[in-house]
Write a structure and sequence with these properties.
This is Malate dehydrogenase, mitochondrial. GO terms for molecular function: L-malate dehydrogenase (NAD+) activity. One of its GO terms (biological process) is tricarboxylic acid cycle. InterPro entries: Lactate/malate_DH_C (IPR022383), Lactate_DH/Glyco_Ohase_4_C (IPR015955). The protein is flat. With 72 residues, the protein is an alpha+beta fold. Strand 1 and strand 2 form a beta hairpin. It has a three-stranded antiparallel β-sheet, with no helix packed on it. The chain contains one helix and three strands, in the order E-E-E-H.
Length: 72
């Protein structure tokens, strides 16, 4: 990033934003790396419902990824 600050990028990272241990959210990056996870922000009721419905499948996929990583 060559010393830039105030860079916002989305990434799938370890998170406490949802029940899933990882989630994709916008991150504030600076010269020293991650400065702040900006979280989900304000979601509509419809968006909240979609996130809630996606969590079981997401948690399952995270578990598969973690299991694979531990075998390597």
């Amino acid at each position: 990033m060559k010393g830039k600050s105030g860079v916002i990028e989305c990434a799938f990272v370890k998170s406490t934003e949802t029940e899933a241990s990882y989630f994709s959210t916008p991150l504030h990056l600076g010269p020293n790396g991650l400065e702040k996870n900006l979280g989900l922000g304000k979601l509509s009721a419809y968006e909240k419902d979609l996130v809630e419905k996606a969590i079981p499948e997401l948690k399952n996929n995270i578990k598969k990824g973690e299991d694979f990583a531990h075998k390597s």
